[in-house]
Amino acid sequence: MNTEGNIDTHQQEQEQLQARMKRIRRKILILSGKGGVGKSTVAANIALALARAGKQVGLLDIDVHGPSIPKMLGLEGHRVSAVEGGLLPVDLGDNLKIISIGFMLPEGDSPVIWRGPLKYNVIKQFLKDVVWGDLDYLVIDSPPGTGDEPLSIAQFLAPDALAVIVTTPQQVAVSDVRKSIQFCRKLQIRILGIVENMSGFICPHCGKTVDIFKTGGGRTMAREMNLPFLGSIPIDPNVVTSSDDGRFFLTQFEGSPAAQAFETVIRLVLEQDNAEKELFPMNNKHTDPVRHLKIAIPVIDGRLCMHFGHCQHFAMVTTTGTKPDTGLAVEYLPPPSHEPGALPRWLHEQGADVIIAGGMGSRAQELFRQSGIEVVVGASADTPENLVQMYLSNTLTSGQNVCDH
Ligand code: ADP
After folding, report:
1. What is the distance between the alpha carbons of residues 71 and 44, in angstroms, rounded to a whole number?
2. Which CATH superfamily, name and number, covers 23-275?
3. pTM beyond 0.90
4. How far is CA 326 from CA 267, 312, 318, in A?
5. Which of 92, 117, 167, 317 is most enclosed, with most CB atoms within 10 A?
6. Top-tier CATH class for 290-392
7. Mean pLDDT over residues 245-254, rounded?
8. What is the Å distance from ligand 1's center to 257 Cα?
9. What pLDDT, in 10s, does the model give residues 375-388?
C-alpha cells in the first residue's frame, strides 16, 4: 500500500473512532501506578454503581497484561461476537454493557506475548469497533503504570478523558502515584480524584476498621496535589470472595462498610462530574478545579474541646485561595443533637472533609470515615486556626485506631 493509502486508512479509522466516541458522554480511565492495587475491582464497582444510578454505562477492560474483568464477573470463556459494523459488548441488562480484551484471548493460563504495535492496534480496534450505542459513561480498566498502553488509550480519548487514580496506603508513599498524576496532567486529562483502596482492615470479629498500614496517605497526597479525594475502601475478604464467585461485590455485600465506601466514591464521582459542568460550562481547559477543604473542629471558649460531645460550637474552617496564598475562613455553627450517628451525618451535610478532635472512640471514628470524612485525633486544646495550620503543614498526626473486640 502506498503512503497515501496508509494516510487515508489512518484518517478513516480516526474518523470512525471519533464518531464512536462522540456517542459516549464521559470516558473515565481507571488508572493505577502498579498492578494489584484493586484497579479492576474499583473499575467494575464504579461501573455497576453508575448503572444502578440510572446511567447508561459501558465497562471496557483493556488491561492487556491481565484482564481480570471476565473472571471477576463470571464471564470467563465468553467470546467476543462480531456483527456488521463492529464488536458487540456483553449486555448484562440494568444499563450495563461489558467488553474485555480477555474475550479475545486464548482460554487457559498461557501468557500472551504482545508485541508493541499489536497492543496499540488492539487497543485502537477496541475503542473504534465496539458497538456501545449511546452511553453516559464508559469506564475503562486500563493497564497499570504510565507506559505505552495507557498512553495509547489516553491519546485516543484525549482531550475528553477523565481519570480516577487508584492507590493503596503503601503505594502513596512511592512515586508511582505522582507519576500517574503527572501523566494525566501532561495529557490534559482531568483527574476526578484519588481512591485509597485496601485502606485499613475490617475486623471479622468486631466489624471495626483496623489500620494495618498507616492510612490517610491518599487524602494527604490529594490535598498536596490539589485533587479531590474520593474515599478510602477498606480491605474486606468478601471483595475476594465475590470476585471468585464472579459476582459484583456491591450487590452481594450491599450495606457493608466497604460497599458503603464504594458508594461514597461513586457519589463523589457524580458530584465531580456535575461540578465540572458548573465550573467549565464551555469546557475546553481541562484543568483541575481548585478544591477548598472544609475542616470541622469542636470548640469551647474559642479552643478545641477535648470531648466533642460537650462542645459549644463547631468551627468550620474553609481554606481559601490557592497555594502559596492559602487563607482560612472560619464560621461557627451550633452542634447538632446528641443522637448516635447524627454528628457524622450533619458534618457530611455541611460538606466537611476533615474533623480534628482531641479524643474519639474507634466506633465514632469509623462512622466519620464511612461518611467520607478524615478523622484526626489527639490534637491539643489550641485555636481552630492554629490547628488547621498545623494540619495543612502535616504537623498534626492521627492517633492509632485500637481494635477493641
Ligand atoms: P488490579 O486491577 O489493580 O491488578 P484487582 O482489582 O485485580 O487489582 O485486585 C487484586 C486482588 O485484590 C483481587 O484478588 C481483588 O479481589 C483483591 N482486592 C481488591 N480490592 C480489595 C479490597 N478492598 N479488599 C480485599 N481485597 C481486595
Report:
1. 11
2. P-loop containing nucleotide triphosphate hydrolases (3.40.50.300)
3. no
4. 27, 27, 10
5. 167
6. alpha beta
7. 88
8. 16
9. 888 888 999 999 99
